[in-house]
Amino acid sequence: MDNRPEPDSQTGSITTHHLTVPPGLTPEEFQQLSSSIMEFHSYRINSGQCSSLLAQRIHAPVDTVWTVVRRFDKPQTYKHFIKSCNVDENFRISVGTTRDVTVISGLPAATSTERLDILDDERHVFGFSIIGGEHRLRNYRSVTTVHELNDDGKTWTVVLESYVVDVPEGNTEEDTRLFADTVVKLNLQKLATVTETMAREARGGGDDCHVSHR
Questions:
Q1: Spatial contact of 194 and 78, defined as CB atoms under 8 Å apart
Q2: Is the pLDDT assigned to residue 183 strictly greater than 80?
Q3: Are 161 and 24 in contact (CB under 8 A)?
Q4: Whole-angstrom Cα distance, residue 3 to residue 17?
């Protein structure tokens, strides 16, 4: 099955996320991940759209991180601004299923209906799109990939998350990207905190080790 994000049309330009090291990654890490970025984090964008790629280093096993990322029915585990998530009674995590998300007050959104587009448990690829609701993120699509990296006997996890979205009327591309980047960055930081805590508890450790994700 081809899990790459599909472009909306054959017009527009292809993103160049594979050419620029995102904040939080070293050039060496970026080089190891460049082929995955090209495969899973490339989008065809048209005028009036913007896209971005963010990265988060996590000191937890890749399988631990993936168990949290893949839970399409529990995004509030690490996504800051989600108040609740509702799915059908007979819900099972599979491509094509949907969730109804309620957003906390104070944001330019109230609800969001989202569809699971990609779920690859072998390659750790997850993608969803917003298909309805009361919000300003029109035609929002996102892909998250989880990677295990190794160097000099050390192993760690890197999460990459990219998106493409329409620029709302009255907003600039820069404003739209800044808002979306901030939300994704905060979510990834919380994902690191949650999964690193899970990893410490699995090892039987306490809270003596704290890692900052600012």
A1: yes
A2: yes
A3: no
A4: 18
